[in-house]
Write a structure and sequence with these properties.
The complex is a heterodimer. Chain A is α/β, with parallel strands linked by helices. Chain A is 35% helix and 25% strand. Chain A has 2 domains: 163 residues, P-loop containing nucleotide triphosphate hydrolases (Rossmann fold), CATH 3.40.50; 74 residues, no CATH class. A 6-stranded mixed beta sheet of chain A has the order 6-7-8-3-9-10, sandwiched between helices. Chain A has a 4-stranded antiparallel beta sheet with strand order 2-1-4-5, covered by helices on one side. In chain A, strand 7, helix 6 and strand 8 form a beta-alpha-beta unit. In chain A, helix 3 crosses helix 4 and helix 3 runs parallel beside helix 5. By secondary structure, chain B is mostly helical. Chain B has 12 helices and 4 strands; from the N terminus they run E-E-H-H-H-H-H-E-E-H-H-H-H-H-H-H. In chain B, the strands form 2 sheets. Chain B has a two-stranded antiparallel sheet with strand order 1-2. The chains are: A alpha/beta, B mainly alpha.
C-alpha cells in the first residue's frame, strides 16, 4: 500500500503574470485520502487541472504510477486510470442519467468506436453503468433526464461518471459545493465508501468534511504549499489559521 | 419515449410502452405501404416530386447527422452533393463510363472531399459555420468559373439514364423505386449509427464536449468521422440527384441549396430520421403548390420557417410527438 501513485515535482502554472500554481511538490501514496485546502484563489482547481490534463503545467513534472504524464492529453490520462469530478457539474443535461454513465463506461473502451450495434442492447454495458448509479444512490433515477434531477443528484451523477472508468486515482473538485447540510452528509458517506483501492485527491472547503476524511492534508496559499501534514497538524498550525482567519 | 431539449431538438431516450410501440409499428407499416403504392395512386408528377423529396431528404439527413446529433451547423454539405453529382455526370457524359463505376466514383469524390473539409471540425460554433461557408463557396466558385471543365453556368447536361448491371432505370417509376430502396437502406444504416455507442458519443459531445475529454474521449476524432460519414451520405444524394435531374449546374453547390437542406431538417424535426424527409416533403410540396399561383413563394417559405421556429421548435415531428405525449397523459 505504500507505493506512490501520484508524484508532483516543482509544478508551476502561470497565466500571464499570475502564478496560479507555484512550485508545488508532493507525493500521494496508493489508497491515501489526500485533501487539498486553501482559501479562494489559492490555486487548488488550477492544480487539479494540471493533474487531470485540462492545463499543461508551465514547468515541473507530474508522474502517475511511474509514468510521466506532464504533457499527456486529458483523455489519455483518463485511459491510464485518472477519474475526476468538476467543481461545476458538467454532465449532459439532455441525456438520461444512465446514458451519461454509459458514455463514461464507453470512454475507456474501444467499443466507443462501434458504429453498428445498439448500446441499449449490450447487457454487460448496461449492467456496468447501472451498478455505478446504484453505487452513488441513483438506482431509482436511471432513466430520468438529467435536467429533471436535483442539484444534489447531479453531484451524485458526477461521482458515478468519475468512478465509471474504475480509476486508480480519483480527483474530486469540491464535490459537496452547493449542497445542503443533509445532502452533504449523504455525499460525504458516499465518498467515504469509495474502496481503498482508489486513491482520493479532493478539494474541499468544508473543514469538518475535509479533516474528517483526510489521511493527509495539503494546504495551498497563493499557489504555494504552506503545509503538508495530518489533519491534527493542520488544526493547530498557526500559519493555516492566519491564512484562513487573518492575523490577530 | 422522446424528450425535448432546450433547443427543441429531439433526443431519443429509453423504453417505450407496448401500446405506443404498436402505434409506431402501425404508422411505420402505413408509411411503407403508402410509399410503395405512391406511383400507382398519385400519378407521374407526384411520383417525380416524391423522388425529389427522397433525394433532398437524404441530403438534409446528411447535414442533420452533424446538426441534430453532434451540434455542428455545416454550410458545405451542398459541396459534397455537388461534387458527387458533377463527377458522375462528367464521367458519364464525357468518358461514357458505366453507371456502376460513375456512381461509385462520384460518391468516392464527394466523400474524399469530406476527408479534406473534415478538418473544419477543429473549430466550433460560429467559426465552424464560417469555415464551412468558405469551403462551400470554393466549390461553388470552381463549378461556376472553371467553365472549360465544369461547363460553367450551364453545367453538365444530357446525363444519360442510369443502367445498373444491365437493368435500365430509365422509367421515372422504376427510378423512384430505386431511389426509395437506396434511401431506405441508407436510413436503416443511419438509424443503426445514431443508436450505436458512436451515435451516443456524438450526442455527448454536442451537450458537454468539455466533459467528454475527461471521460476518455477525443471529441475531434469522433466529429471527424461523423463529418466524413455525413459527406458520404450527401454524396449518395448527389449521385441520385444527377441521374434524376439529368443535368447538374453550380446551383447544386450553392449556399441556397445548403441552407434549404438544413431548413428541411429543422422544419421536419432535427435529430430524428424521419424529420428531414418530412421537412423535405413540406418544403418541396409547399414550393410546388405556392409557386403555381404566387411568384414570391420564397417569402411564404420565410414566414412558414419563422412560424415553425417560434411555435414548433421541434419541427413537424416535434409537434406530432407533443400530440402523442398529450394523448398519453
Amino acid at each position: 500500500m505504500s507505493e506512490t501513485v501520484l508524484s508532483l515535482r516543482g509544478v508551476h502554472k502561470s497565466f500571464g503574470g499570475i502564478h496560479a500554481v507555484d512550485n508545488v511538490s508532493f507525493d500521494v501514496k496508493a489508497g491515501e485520502r489526500r485533501v487539498v485546502i486553501g482559501p479562494n484563489g489559492a490555486g487548488k482547481t488550477s492544480l487539479f487541472h494540471c493533474i487531470s490534463g485540462t492545463h499543461t503545467p508551465t514547468t515541473g513534472s507530474i508522474v502517475f504510477c511511474g509514468e510521466p504524464i506532464t504533457h499527456m492529453p486529458e483523455h489519455k490520462r483518463t485511459l491510464l486510470g485518472i477519474g475526476r469530478t468538476f467543481q461545476i457539474s458538467s454532465v449532459c443535461l439532455e441525456l438520461s442519467a444512465l446514458e451519461n454513465v454509459l458514455l463514461a463506461v464507453l470512454g475507456v473502451r474501444a467499443q466507443k468506436w462501434d458504429f453498428w450495434n445498439s448500446f441499449h442492447a449490450d447487457q454487460g454495458l448496461q449492467r456496468q453503468a447501472e451498478e455505478k448509479l446504484v453505487m452513488v444512490g441513483l438506482s431509482t433515477k436511471l432513466n430520468r433526464q438529467v435536467s429533471d434531477l436535483s442539484y444534489g443528484e447531479r453531484r451524485q451523477l458526477e461521482l458515478a461518471l468519475a468512478l465509471s472508468n474504475d480509476p486508480q486515482l480519483l480527483l474530486l473538485d469540491e464535490p459537496c459545493a452547493g449542497l445542503s447540510p443533509a445532502e452533504r452528509q449523504r455525499f460525504f458517506s458516499l465518498v467515504k465508501n469509495v474502496p481503498r483501492s482508489v486513491t482520493l485527491l479532493m478539494i474541499e472547503h468544508d473543514m469538518d468534511v475535509a479533516l474528517g476524511l483526510a489521511d493527509r492534508v495539503t494546504v495551498l496559499h497563493r499557489g504555494q504549499v504552506i503545509l503538508d501534514g495530518t489533519a491534527d497538524e493542520v488544526r493547530v498550525n498557526e500559519k493555516v489559521r492566519e491564512v484562513y482567519f487573518g492575523r490577530v | 419515449m422522446n424528450t425535448r431539449s432546450e433547443t427543441g431538438m429531439e433526443t431519443p431516450t429509453i423504453a417505450q410502452p407496448g401500446a405506443l410501440r404498436l402505434g409506431y409499428a402501425v404508422a411505420g407499416i402505413a408509411l411503407v405501404v403508402l410509399l410503395m403504392a405512391w406511383p400507382a395512386i398519385a400519378g407521374k408528377f407526384a411520383t417525380s416530386l416524391m423522388t425529389q423529396i427522397l433525394i433532398f431528404g437524404l441530403l438534409s439527413l446528411s447535414a442533420d447527422l452533424l446538426l441534430g446529433h453532434a451540434g455542428l451547423f455545416s454550410l458545405c454539405h451542398a459541396a459534397f452533393f455537388s461534387v458527387a453529382a458533377y463527377t458522375t455526370a462528367i464521367l458519364q457524359v464525357r468518358y461514357s463510363v458505366a453507371t456502376e463505376a460513375a456512381a461509385c466514383l462520384g460518391i468516392l469524390a464527394g466523400t474524399g472531399l469530406g476527408l479534406i473539409f473534415g478538418l473544419a471540425v477543429r473549430t466550433r460554433g460560429v467559426y465552424f459555420i464560417l469555415v464551412t461557408l468558405a469551403l462551400g463557396y470554393i466549390v461553388w466558385g470552381v463549378g461556376y468559373r472553371w467553365s472549360s471543365f465544369t461547363g460553367g453556368d450551364s453545367g453538365v447536361t444530357n446525363v444519360p439514364s442510369p443502367t445498373l448491371f444491365g437493368f435500365p432505370l430509365e422509367d421515372p417509376t422504376t427510378y423512384y423505386y430505386f431511389v426509395l430502396c437506396v434511401v431506405a437502406a441508407v436510413a436503416y444504416g443511419y438509424g443503426r449509427v445514431v443508436r450505436s455507442p458512436f451515435g451516443l458519443t456524438l450526442r455527448g459531445i454536442k451537450y458537454a464536449e468539455r466533459r467528454m475529454h475527461s471521460l476518455g474521449f477525443h471529441p475531434v476524432k469522433h466529429l471527424y468521422c461523423a463529418f466524413v460519414l455525413s459527406a458520404f451520405l450527401a454524396s449518395v444524394a448527389g449521385v441520385l440527384y444527377v441521374y434524376f435531374n439529368k443535368f447538374v449546374n453550380p446551383v447544386s453547390a450553392s449556399l441556397h441549396n445548403n441552407v434549404e437542406a438544413i431548413l428541411m431538417a429543422i422544419l421536419g424535426g432535427s435529430g430524428s430520421i424521419l424529420g428531414p424527409f418530412v421537412g423535405a416533403a413540406f418544403v418541396l410540396g409547399l414550393r410546388n403548390w405556392v409557386s403555381s399561383f404566387f411568384e414570391l413563394y420564397l417569402t411564404v417559405m420565410g414566414i412558414v420557417f419563422i412560424a415553425v421556429v417560434i411555435w414548433a421548435p421541434g419541427g413537424v415531428s416535434g409537434l406530432v410527438q407533443r400530440l402523442i405525449n398529450r394523448l398519453r397523459s
